Amino acid sequence: MRPKFPILFLLLIAPFFAGCPAQKSRPAPDPEREFSPRKEEELVIESSPSGARVSFSTGGACNTPCRTIKSREQDITVRIEKDGYVGVNKVVKSLPLLSPEKSASLGASGQAVAAAGIRYLSPNPLVVKLVPAWTKD
Known about the structure:
By secondary structure, the chain is α+β, with helices and mostly antiparallel strands. The chain has a domain at 36-129: Sandwich (Immunoglobulin-like). The chain is built from 4 helices and 8 strands; from the N terminus they run H-H-E-E-E-E-E-E-H-H-E-E. 10% of the residues are buried.
């Protein structure tokens, strides 16, 4: 009878050698491709109660809850109205992803992000609780 040791030994060490491909070198990241900012963002608007009319200073309208694509390049004034409730104006700000101080502390990658001008909209989602309007009879 043959010893089982060589077979067991091979079964135990085989997983360590399986899937060990040679390391492939990665090309250096291309800042134009890696940090290419999208100029638009999906803006989500919600209200309580839902069904309010929403209009944007940049054009367009929808009813809550709604999702719309808006430019990250400028602030947007949002008007939310519903019959029987006080209308609300809110500003959605276009903010830089990184402040100059933060980008400097992150080194070259942070500076590349800052140089690319990546921005975002805030607040997003915009959630508004409408207040009932009291009318005199």
